[in-house]
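User: My advisor, Dr. K., asked me to get a structural model of this assembly before our group meeting. I'm new to this, so sorry if the format is off. These are the inputs:
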Amino acid sequence: MKYLLLKHYQGGKAPAVDFVPMDQWTPEEFDAHVQFMHDFAARLEESGEFVDAQALAPEGAWVRYDGEGRPAVTDGPFAETKDLIAGWMVIDVDSWDRAVELAGQLSAAPGKDGKPIYEWLEVRPFLADPSTVGE
Amino acid sequence: MDDRELRELVPAVIGILVRRGASFASAEDAVQDALVRALETWPDDPPRDPRAWLVTVAWRKHVDALRSELARQGRELAVEREPPPGPVPTADDSLRLYFLCAHPTLPTASAVALTLRAVGGLTTRQIAAAYLIPEATMAQRISRAKKRLAGLPLDQPGDLATVLRVLYLVFNEGYSGDVDLAAEAIRIARQLTRLTDEPEVAGLLALMLLHHARRASRTGPGGRLVPLGQQDRSLWDTALIAEGVAILQAALARDRLGEYQAQAAIAALHADARTTAETDWVQIVEWYDELLRLTDSPVVRLNRAVAVGEADGARAGLAALAEVSPDLPRYAAAAAYLHEHAGDLPRSAALYAEAARAAASVAERDHLAREGARVRGQLAGDPQHHLAELTTRRERLGDSTSGEGGAAPAATSD
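Assistant: The format is fine. Below is the predicted structure of the whole assembly, which you can bring to the meeting.
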């Protein structure tokens, strides 16, 4: 079963602990954070549970159809980056419990003073293809 | 023979391959490939002896796989040693293939894919993997590109510039997944230098070799980007550098300068220096002037400003930067670097943060964020900068409560 672990900037749910923004970390704290993310993905590759990880730039815009023959309407750049999606990881695991366990580990990434950032991650199961048996 | 019977043959065939000297893993892979092939072809063309067929095809697959593995390590050597099978195409035929694959009417991504497949000999699957795209999408892209080319008159002279640009793009893609695109680009460029003596082709090959020589030093632990000034120069591949310099010198002697030769000359000056301080920045600026004359590119102007900063000091660099549009990618990063060296740490830290937000890759973003953290760390250790840092932070947060603090721009005052 595939699950999406969605990372928000600092938006989403109210933070569990005071979050010191990344641009106030020391280089060493920053390195530790990056290394943690790197190691986490490597461990999931090793265990055969990693599917994909991507980061998104904060820039972008809202876009919609505006009627036949008219160019699409855009609304951007975004005023607030904190409500945006920062990136995601897709995992393929045996159970919801395992997905929760891994999301919990990822949320413990170190931040200021090497302490876990307690980041809220949004965990969402993929809607799978219909199974062959059981129709 | 049905699928079940076919599959029953597989263990025996793997056994035969292993006895012939293949490792289990590669024998299993090869038989798997042969199996797929059998499923495709046997319904229409059943073999007389299925087992013998599987052994032959799997062994061939195994030998092919072994060759491509060797090729990954030393493809260029293999090309040198092995005469191409079958009739040898003429240089003109080969050159035409390059031009066709990189035809100006093709979208860039299609030209890249087609070049890698038809000229580079990679499989669709490898190309798809290298660009992190589904194989079906890549197959479709290649087939659409070939359809597009089908209607073209092919008697016109080709455009070497587009061929070089495609190879340059492939090289810049670097290493992802199982395919080393930088090495592939070098291999293809090398083939191309045998087909044409155009100095720009040699210039591009030299440029690639000189950059490739530094590859091991360019990333640190966890994939971290290491800037040129901090690279461990003992990791640089001196043989590749020597080769790149020799190829460049021969090209420059032809006295038909082009942008790839000029870029290679800059790369050669970096490669030639034992430290950043020993780098001949004055000459590098002169080459950037040549490049500007050839291309009038804003990106070149930006890089030139950084070089001027090294040659004549950060203030001069900032003056050169003033001629560049701030909308340009990496403008903030260049400005952050120059302001740091000009001593304006608060401004530098703010610019690094801005540059990180605008970065086009995770590695670049992380590098710039880290540089920002480093500069702020210096600020924290220097009481003179405390006030200025607060001001900068307030600006960054968009706090407009007051204009005091000296460095605050008028726009934020009430």
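One thing worth pointing out at the meeting: Chain B touches chain A at residues 221-224, 353, 356-360, 362, 365-366, 369-370, 372-374, 376-377 (CB under 8 Å).

User: Perfect, thanks a lot.
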